[in-house]
Amino acid sequence: MAAAKDQLEDGWFSWVKTQHPEELELVLYDTTSTYFQGLGAEEIGEFGHSKDHRPDRRQIVIGVLMSRKGLPLAHEVFSGNTADVVTFREIIRRVQSRFRLQRVVLVADRGTVSKAILQAIRDCGLEFIVGMRMRRCKAAAALLSRAGRYRPVAKNLKVKDIVLDGTRYILCYNPLRAKQEAMTRQDTLDRLERQLKQGGPRQFVGHRLYRRFLQFDKQAVVGIDRAAVDKESRFDGKFILVTNTELGASEVALAYKDLWRVERGFRCMKSHLDLRPVHHWTEARVRGHVAICFLALILDTLLRRALQSAGVEASMADVMRDLREVRAATVECGGRSYLARTDLQGHAFRVFQALGTRPPARLTPL
């Protein structure tokens, strides 16, 4: 399976490009990791940053390329300690050399972006929309102080288009998230003030999230740092996108919000598509296992779309449960053998309808 992966993906990509070229106007990219239950494949299993919060296990890193509308396009498997910039360069190479797209706008999450990644994308001449970590962005202060109104894009999403030092930024604001973050911070401050009245919040001094709100004098806590609180409040509900596209600010922000489709794909692979646990011991089998799960993700996505078009309102968990109940058994009657199908339960019949396929016959002579 691992040996046939590229051939299968090339054929699939050609079909998408021919049948649904609109799917390829914006391409989303993200990575995840999955860990081994045992030692795993020594050639590819390594300790690294675990997105499953299992740093004690060897893992692999998986990069997935997906259309804006959620159609899986391609994937790559990397050793567990591979840096995100390396995964980006490999995916970019695939986009340019294998898929030969006229135009690709690469959309990527805040957690995978660094200067090296941005430079790699620029060097390849690709257009991009990437999120920046607000508190690590050197331009954040200048962007937040820039005058101008936010323009509404969608419910709980407003944007401001800013060009600074030749770089285009989209400053995004979510009023609901801002309110939630303000409430969370106030709860933290209330807790710290209670501890100060009781003799000092010693247990919070080493905690990064609490320590930034404390004011010190020769390592002794003297109170709440109100300047730090005011500075933090400026970030409430805001995030920064950087792009080199000519798309409108609204379209840039909505494209970035579409990254949830990749995250849903990862959750799907790890849950009912059985990506994890990985019990294989050789690199070829591990890669083959991931490739099978990726093909299953494609089928899962196509099934979701067919059900949605047919107006079937059901979760994939319920659909798969009902399909698993469709079984067959061999029966003998009058000296002849037959294959008898069980009744279609729940949503099973609607699934066959949505796919334009007849259910298996109730009774088939053998």
Helix and strand layout, with pairings?
Layout: H1 5-19, E1 26-35, E2 59-67, E3 72-79, H2 84-99, E4 105-108, H3 115-123, E5 127-132, H4 140-145, E6 151-154, E7 157-164, E8 167-173, H5 175-197, H6 202-205, H7 208-211, E9 214-217, E10 220-224, H8 226-233, E11 238-243, H9 249-257, H10 260-270, H11 283-309, H12 316-324, E12 328-333, E13 336-341, H13 348-354, E14 363-365
Parallel strand pairs: 1-4, 4-5
Antiparallel strand pairs: 1-2, 2-3, 5-11, 6-7, 7-8, 8-11, 9-10, 12-13, 13-14
What would you say this structure looks like, in words?
The protein has 366 residues and is of the alpha+beta class. It has 13 helices and 14 strands. The chain has a 9-stranded mixed sheet with strand order 3-2-1-4-5-11-8-7-6, sandwiched between helices. Strands 12-13-14 form a 3-stranded antiparallel sheet, with no helix packed on it. Strand 4 (105-108), helix 3 (115-123) and strand 5 (127-132) form a beta-alpha-beta unit. It starts with a helix and ends with a strand. 26% of the residues are buried. The mean pLDDT is 84.
Keywords:
single chain; 366 residues; alpha+beta; nine-stranded mixed β-sheet; three-stranded antiparallel β-sheet; 13 helices
Summarize the structure.
26% of the residues are buried.
Order of strands, main sheet, comes to 3-2-1-4-5-11-8-7-6
The biggest sheet, with number of strands, parallel, antiparallel or mixed sense and barrel status, is: 9 strands, mixed
Strand runs, count: 14
Distance between the termini: 32 Å
- Global mean pLDDT: 84
Which overall shape is indicated by the principal axes computed on the Cα atoms?
globular
**Low-confidence segments, ≥5 residues, pLDDT <50?**
none
Secondary-structure class: alpha+beta
Strand content: 15-25%
**What's the Cα radius of gyration?**
26 Å
Tally of DSSP helical segments: 13
Helix percent reads 40-55%
Q: Note the run of SSEs as H and E.
A: HEEEHEHEHEEEHHHEEHEHHHHEEHE
